[in-house]
């Protein structure tokens, strides 16, 4: 009877639904598989390690396990000259899935050439991956992907340790230190790449790694960057969005024949110049601008934005982005996407001040979610019943003391080997390309670092790599950036005064 009772109890436990079971992710685990991929016509062998690595507290106890996927080219033995790229996505609260299976990794999801979902869902080789020139690790911060805090950690402690700009930077820097040590990569050239909020993250990490862990980087890549703590309130914030409006209106054929006849990149400089030289001062003047001048500025804005002069005047030259997404195609019964305005949506009513939903994000979640779940379990052989969080619970997020743009500037000033590349999509309305340029100008107003900064624009949106042509171009830009920013053997990390002789060389002679 006792044996029967025990058997019945065991059956009941096994039969419990996953939601009723206590699911715990191991804080330290790995599964390694072997693969090959053809990149630019060459077959590349590599190992893929999917697993978790602990986040340690001050007493050396694990307080979280971060899920990561590490790709290492297996036919290269010289790690000292083999670059390592550490990749983060944003949110905050977003998994590393986006760049992992759609951009730089060796496998990408099945979508069409413009980024729209296709069925059957699946994974295919990425012929443009940067794995030919660099090893890559995709990292998921706490509560994103399969990463979790330990169950014994209180919500209050988790909030303090993980969920804020500076807390996030601090614990991830320590995690990277451990990872680099475990994988034997201290002598490798190192790069950080971040997308969206991930650009805030990696900008802060550049200085934190340098000052707290004495780990010096060769490059930082910002994909669709945020404001990085660089203030632009008032007229600057209101005006800087106009070049994005112009790009979107051009894509949807809403500009005059004169402007539509020009190529996108030939048209935008005119809008940028107007924004800086005329629109910012006009908005700053407010009512003192005068009605005639105000109407003249509104007419120029209408010319560049595809909106009516009347609507612009009703907003006093300050048209909110959400209204633009609703208004541009209102007469056709469509809205445009926030993160990628090539995508269009359908609202319940044509009236209103903002779209009902984000058509681009729903499209992306449609294709990415099944792909990453299939990939982790079937291709990487990492088995777990824990839910993969495309977006995880990290709120409230502490946004105070955001100095990440200046952190990156300081890291570059202290490290002559550190280079920066910014990648932006012209149709991104959340982290628009013109504000990405503005970041660079304001990070280094004196221009002393500009020779180590570069900007690349693409004819797509927030995740420019979803468009097949930009996937190829953007990866090639990263590849070139890495190859050019690794110093030649024996090249010292030092500044030289223009026109001044190297004193050490002079004395030696």
From TrEMBL:
Signal peptide range in chain numbering: 1-20
UniProt entry keywords in alphabetical sequence: Carboxypeptidase, Glycoprotein, Hydrolase, Protease, Signal
UniProt entry tagged with the keyword Glycoprotein: yes
InterPro entries: AB_hydrolase_fold (IPR029058), Peptidase_S10 (IPR001563)
Any one GO molecular-function label of the UniProt entry: serine-type carboxypeptidase activity
Region listing for Disordered, in residue ranges: 486-509
GO biological process, one term: proteolysis
Listed PANTHER family: RETINOID-INDUCIBLE SERINE CARBOXYPEPTIDASE (PTHR11802:SF3), SERINE PROTEASE FAMILY S10 SERINE CARBOXYPEPTIDASE (PTHR11802)
Stated name of the protein: Carboxypeptidase C (Cathepsin A)
Originating organism: Pontibacter akesuensis
């Amino acid at each position: 009877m006792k044996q029967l009772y025990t058997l019945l109890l065991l059956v009941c436990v096994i039969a419990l639904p996953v939601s009723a079971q206590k699911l715990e992710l191991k804080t330290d685990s790995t599964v390694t598989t072997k693969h090959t991929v053809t990149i630019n016509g060459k077959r590349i062998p590599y190992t893929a390690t999917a697993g978790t690595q602990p986040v340690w507290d001050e007493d050396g106890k694990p307080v979280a396990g971060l899920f990561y996927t590490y790709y290492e080219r297996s036919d290269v033995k010289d790690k000292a000259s083999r670059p390592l790229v550490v990749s983060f996505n944003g949110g905050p609260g977003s998994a590393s899935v986006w760049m992992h299976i759609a951009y730089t990794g060796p496998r990408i999801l099945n979508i069409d050439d413009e980024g729209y979902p296709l069925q059957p869902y699946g994974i295919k080789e990425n012929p443009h991956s940067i794995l030919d020139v660099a090893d890559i690790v995709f990292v998921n911060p706490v509560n994103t992907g399969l990463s979790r805090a330990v169950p014994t950690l209180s919500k209050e402690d988790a909030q303090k340790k993980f969920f804020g700009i500076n807390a996030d930077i601090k614990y991830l820097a320590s995690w990277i230190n451990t990872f680099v040590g475990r994988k034997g990569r201290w002598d490798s050239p190192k790069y950080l790449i971040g997308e969206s909020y991930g650009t805030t993250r990696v900008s802060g990490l550049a200085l934190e790694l340098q000052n707290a862990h004495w780990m010096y980087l060769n490059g930082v890549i910002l994909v669709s960057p945020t404001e990085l703590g660089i203030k632009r309130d008032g007229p600057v914030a209101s005006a800087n969005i106009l070049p994005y409006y112009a790009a979107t209106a051009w894509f949807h054929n809403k500009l005059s024949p004169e402007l539509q006849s020009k190529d996108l990149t030939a048209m935008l400089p005119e809008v940028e110049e107007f924004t800086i030289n005329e629109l910012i001062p006009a908005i700053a003047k407010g009512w003192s601008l005068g009605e005639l001048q105000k109407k003249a500025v509104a007419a120029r804005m209408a010319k560049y934005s595809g909106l009516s002069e009347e609507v612009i005047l009703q907003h006093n030259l300050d048209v909110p982005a959400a209204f633009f997404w609703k208004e541009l195609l209102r007469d056709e019964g469509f809205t445009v996407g926030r993160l990628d305005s090539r995508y269009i949506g359908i609202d319940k009513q044509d009236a209103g001040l903002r779209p009902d939903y984000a058509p681009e994000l729903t499209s992306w979640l449609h294709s990415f979610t099944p792909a990453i779940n299939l990939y982790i379990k079937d291709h990487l052989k990492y088995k777990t019943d824990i839910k993969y969080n495309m977006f995880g619970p990290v709120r409230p997020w502490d946004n105070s003391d955001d100095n990440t743009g200046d952190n990156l500037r300081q890291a570059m000033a202290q490290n002559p080997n550190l280079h920066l590349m910014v990648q932006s999509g012209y149709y991104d309305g959340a982290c628009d390309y013109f504000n990405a340029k503005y970041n660079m100008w304001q990070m280094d107003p004196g221009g002393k670092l500009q020779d180590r900064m570069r900007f690349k624009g693409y004819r797509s949106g927030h995740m420019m790599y979803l468009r097949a042509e930009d996937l190829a171009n953007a990866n090639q830009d990263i590849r070139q950036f890495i190859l050019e920013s690794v110093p030649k053997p024996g090249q010292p990390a030092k500044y030289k005064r223009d026109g001044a002789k190297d004193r050490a060389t002079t004395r030696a002679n």
